[in-house]
Amino acid sequence: MYVGYESTSDLVSRKRPEHSIPGIVLASASLVVMPLLSRAKKKIGSSLSSAAMRADAKQSDFCVYLSVILLIGLLLNAGLNWWWTDPVAALIMVPIIAKEGIDGIKAKTCC
């Protein structure tokens, strides 16, 4: 809810975010590391027949999706000075974050 509120507020007030080179580096690193981590977790989950490890691998996949959205917003903001892409990227993330949060509260498994 906070992410949605802040992003909407930033869009309405036309608040320009700062460019974030560390954010771009971190999101890029996540795009390299998280798929490898997810693949390893899936392999271990299968070999151990562990639903928990397979669910953890699924969470790593969600991290990849969020990192892609984040990186696009950061790159467009830094490269083209499209300030609005940062809050729009955050708004795109809101349903994904909300679904995961609700599923976690309900203790709903993904696998």
Task: Give a description of the structure.
There is one protein chain. This protein has 111 residues and is an all-alpha fold. It has one domain. The chain contains four helices and no strands. It has helices at residues 2-13, 21-48, 51-80, 85-105. The longest helix has 30 residues, at 51-80. The mean pLDDT is 92.
By DSSP (H or I, 4+ residues per run), the number of helices equals: 4
Give the number of DSSP strands. 0
Number of domains: 1
Q: Quick one: biggest sheet?
A: none
**End-to-end separation:** 26 Å
The ordered H/E elements are: HHHH
Describe what is shown at a glance.
With 111 residues, the chain is mostly helical. It contains 4 helices and no strands. It has one domain (21-105).
